Amino acid sequence: LTRTKNRRAFDEYLARLWNQATEDSRAIAIVLIDVDHFKAYNGRHGHQAGDQALRRVAETVQAFVRRPLDVMERSGDAALVALLYDIDRGQAMNIANRICRAVEESAIEQRGSKASNKVTISVGVAVIEPTIERSPRGALQLADQALYEAKAKGRNRVECMDNSEYGMLVTGMFSKRSSRR
Predict the structure, then answer these.
(1) How many angstroms separate the CA atoms of 42 and 148, rounded?
(2) What are phi and psi of 30, to 5 degrees?
């Protein structure tokens, strides 16, 4: 539907890139993107229109995920995830904010929505310096927490978390040791 990689391919790529970033001492960013109020969009406009809107959102995001080691995939009904290699927090936030604006500016109509008359997205970004003691699953959890914050703060926005905030993870999945329990 969105002409992107599937979740399994993404998970395999994340594991490989995590190892490479660890060896190269490079940071990666995980960018989780969720179409705001997509279930209501499907209900109001129909599933075919929803599929078309999701394709347009994916095309918009893909335009920003184009460096050789960057990758994007569809991770859920109305969710996309991008992995950006060798990037700092400022660069990742710049890209994420540009994606958020570009989706809104694509002017995909959303009649009857209380939030906006256009399709918008919420974005959670985690910028991580991988180490052998940390896990990719924990980095995904950190990005998920950032996405939750973006939604809680009103949607159509970007929130970011990085190494300094990994201690907030309640489940402890960021550490390989604690994920074995």
Answers:
(1) 22
(2) -110, 125
> For residue 91, what are its two tokens?
């660069």
59 Cβ contact partners less than 8 Å away, ≥ 6 residues apart: none
Residues 6 or more apart whose Cβ sits within 8 Å of residue 120: 35, 36, 100, 103, 104, 155, 156
**Backbone phi and psi for residue 69, each to the nearest 5 degrees, phi listed first:** -100, 0
- CA angle (14 as vertex; 13, 19 as ends), nearest 5: 100
Place of tokens 């395999």: 12
Cβ atoms 10, 73 nearer than 8 A: yes
pLDDT at 110: 85
- DSSP category for residue 124: E
* Sign of the alpha-carbon torsion through 67, 143, 137, 167: positive
128-155 pLDDT, tens digit each: 999 888 889 989 999 999 999 999 999 9
